[in-house]
């Protein structure tokens, strides 16, 4: 069996993907399956930082449309990401993977507070570190939090694992004729306004030369093949 080619990755999981076939919350089978995939990566010696979105529970933007103050809605969204992180932490620990949630918003009875130096120490010890509560600030997303943490921990690669196979010319869920891009530059993704990831997150990756892969979390074995160097999903990088 070939070896993983990365030492440390930042994996961003879509919150919505955790719903499975449901329309809200967490499907325990999905979270157990993804935890199993992460266990395989850890066993291959890769250090893993994890960011999980909150779209399966709350998004500030949606709550604002329903009449809730935007900043309060964003706080609710960030708390949703803590719930997802705790659920994943539990699933990992149950299968013997050391895991630790670090929140950007202190809540000491619930989990650790994010401190970069400590996070890196935990990663070096082989613990999966779950970065929760996004950036800790409203008006951001967990994509931006994932880019930020990837850069802070000096990850070799950021992976956005979501419900589609990668980057397309348009949202493939809404436009089935959209063209798949196996590779695209940060600048082209920004210029074309592709909505697979928010612009702040892409700019952070671009300006800090953080390579990014976008892939489907529901493709069996894909994560492992990706970290062994297979061209899974779409690569977003510098260039034209
Ligand atoms: N050009 C595009 N290429 C690929 N996907 C796109 C594109 N434009 C929009 N999308 C949509 O973006 C989604 C990816 O975002 P994702 O569901 O991971 O949301 P998120 O807001 O990052 O996460 P969460 O579910 O945690 O809120 C895909 O499911 C896809 O439908
Ligand atoms: O830094 C952040 C990260 C997230 N939020 C809020 O949480 C929700 C859920 O995150 P998703 O990235 O959409 O999954 C997001 O919609 C924001 O409301 C935040 O305020 N700051």
UniProtKB/TrEMBL annotation:
GO terms for cellular component: cytosol. UMP binds at residues 54, 74, 135-142. Its EC number is 2.7.4.22. It holds the Pfam family AA_kinase. Keywords: ATP-binding, Cytoplasm, Kinase, Nucleotide-binding, Pyrimidine biosynthesis, Transferase. The keyword Lyase does not apply. It catalyses: UMP + ATP = UDP + ADP. It is found in: Cytoplasm. Pathway: Pyrimidine metabolism; CTP biosynthesis via de novo pathway; UDP from UMP (UMPK route): step 1/1. GO terms for molecular function: ATP binding; UMP kinase activity. Its main location: cytoplasm. SUPFAM superfamilies: Carbamate kinase-like (SSF53633). Belongs to the UMP kinase family. HAMAP family: PyrH_B (MF_01220_B). Catalyzes the reversible phosphorylation of UMP to UDP. This is Uridylate kinase. It comes from Sedimenticola selenatireducens.
